[in-house]
Amino acid sequence: MQLRVVASFVVATAFFCGHARADEHSASVRLKDSEVFVLHRGRAGVSLDERSQRASHALNSALDDDSQPRVEQRGNLSVVYLGNVSVVEIDSDDARAAGDGSARDQAIRLSTRVREALQRERRRQRIASSVFSISLVVLFGLLTVFLTRRVAQLSNRIRTILSEQPERVPAVKIYSLELLSPSSFRNALTVLSGGFKWLAQLTLLYAWLVVSLSLFQSTQALTSRLTGALLVPLSQFATRLFGSLPVVAAVAVVGLAVVLSLRFTRLFFASVASGEIRTGWIAADTARTVGRLVQTGIVLATLVFVAPVLTGDDSGALSLAGWMLTAMLGLSAVPVLATILAGTAFSLIHGAKIGDWLEVGGAGGRVEALTPLDVRLRADEATVLRVPYLLTLVRVVRVRAERLVRATCAAPWSVDTDGLVAHLKSALVQVGTSPTVELLPGSGGLDVVLTVTSADPDAQTRLLNFGSDAVAAFVQKSENAP
Asked: How would you class 278 by CB atoms within 10 Å of its CB: exposed for 0-12, middle for 13-18, buried for 19 or more?
């Protein structure tokens, strides 16, 4: 019994010692944490462990590129390459130690294992990278949403403060000169806060989009295009801007001078309109309109004459804008110029004077004033007609020193009509010339229509009063006759 136990112990010891010696004469070549193949011996002064470490380093170095293993014959050696890097060299002794028929057979077998290991590891890395990239996209998206909401809250808070506490906004001044009133400055800050909100939100969204596209290999080309489409124009603009700093400074000075001139002009004409300043060359009623014209002239003169001097380019953007505005103003002034020319033609052709009776179409009155743009007619004591000269080109115009005056009065049915007509014609010569009398049936008697030609401004009133008195006198005389 004791002899059997001792024999079993000896056999077990021999087995474990032999297995340990076999493990001592082999080394694993690993890709990351996985075993790819096993080497059984060192060669040419290189130990087994060093040889396996070199092969493992070559495999891990080639993991990030797309190189595939291949076998090349170099003398009596079969070499497994990854790209230009030698992974392992196999000779006939290595083949016998591994139990293969030849060195090339073992090299092909090892090449197949290397290819399979690289495919597995690269697939695992792609999956891990995709999962990590998707996680980053979600994380950055949540961060973008948070920052976007914070920007909106900040903008709304600023606008609330500006609306609820307007007294906290001061005026913009240069010493004692006020450039912007508190209300104007508050409105500008309100607009800027809204613009800042949209600009910041779009910037955050653009940054998230660029970062998200750059995380995936298939969309990295879109990232470069998207970035170039935005940054290249900005960089070119910045280069041009810094290269023209002297011109920018001069433009800023001229711009400040123009702003001050416009403000002074507005304040001056506003004071004239309110009556604080009285001048003989402009009426208070037209001061604001003249002020706008002067401000427009200042801007146009600056763009047309000053801008080319500052930029050194007669065909620059500012000069071109000035000429375009001038052309627009010229086109808009065509009706005014046409009216002035029509007024000149009217004065030469018709020769109307102050006090003449003028009829244009169906409207008429005595000429009270001849302005550059229209003729003013006094129709009666409470009505003044302004007739543009352009209207005289398409309407019938009658000019005469005397006008036709008409008035209507009443007479009874029983009156002697022939005698009344003769009496009125002889009496109306005291009011005007060419008197006419027409009797028409009315609601309670006869309507007596009287017409004379007179240059007297009050001829119609005199005709009505004189005709009524003449009719009443004739009727009374007829009734008292035997």
From this structure: exposed
- Residues 298-328 have pLDDT tens digits of 877 777 666 665 655 555 555 666 667 777 7
- Tell me the β-bridge partners of 322: none
Query: Could you tell me if 108 and 99 are in contact, meaning their C-beta atoms sit under 8 angstroms apart?
Result: no
Q: Give the confidence band of 16 by pLDDT, cuts at 50, 70, 90.
A: very low
3-state secondary structure of 66: coil
Fill in the amino acid letter for 322: G
Could you tell me if 296 and 329 are in contact, meaning their C-beta atoms sit under 8 angstroms apart?
A: yes
Q: 469 pLDDT exceeds 60?
A: yes
What is the value of pTM for the model shown? 0.43
Q: Cα separation of 59 and 81, whole Å?
A: 10
Helix ranges, 173-244 (H): 182-214, 220-243
Rounded Cα distance, 363 and 382, in Å: 15
Helices 287-301 and 245-274: angle between axes, nearest 10 degrees: 170
Upper half-sphere CA count for residue 342 (Cβ side, 13 Å):
18
Is-contact 460 406, C-beta < 8 A? yes
